[in-house]
Amino acid sequence: MLSFGEELTGNDLKKWADWSIGFFYWSPSVSQVYAELKKLENLGLVNSRTVAEAGARGRRLYAITDTGTEALRDWSRDAKVEMPVLKHGVMLRLWMGHLLAPERLKMIVKDHIANLEHNASEARRHAEHSNDEPAWAFSRMSLRWADRHFQAEIRLAEQLLEDIDEASRWFRDESETGENGRVRPRHPGRWREADESDNGTA
Asked: CA–CA separation, 149 vs 49, rounded Å?
């Protein structure tokens, strides 16, 4: 964010992260921001100065250095392109759907859709807020992507509402459970076959 040419406090960076990269990467805590700024300053990648304000505690402003700009450019250009890490709490709960009633699963998905609709709206609003700042051209592009990403996730979640019915019918008609309600797998250890296939040992 300092590469956009402004001097900013740690709190400024936190606020900016919340309405920008927080939609598609990560929004750090204030303490994490200041810890990273200290590390970057020790490495000579950013510098700081304190600005005195009448009747208030001085603010420490951070700016990126030429060395920091070059390091950031090198990373952005040369870093290996890897698959994004997906940690989807809703899908984890659906994966264990045999523990819950279908209607409860649907309520979880509907709550998820509501969250996605809110995030899509916020990403779209912040993208529009960027319209009069050409320095934010790629930031606006990324926020528009975030909006489309959330919209796509909404469509996938809406499909899940039908998928839950199908999975529930199959589970109800074909699976076996013990007296304590625990599932009795038809093919115990079946997951090992997938693992062996992945390793070429099947």
From this structure: 39
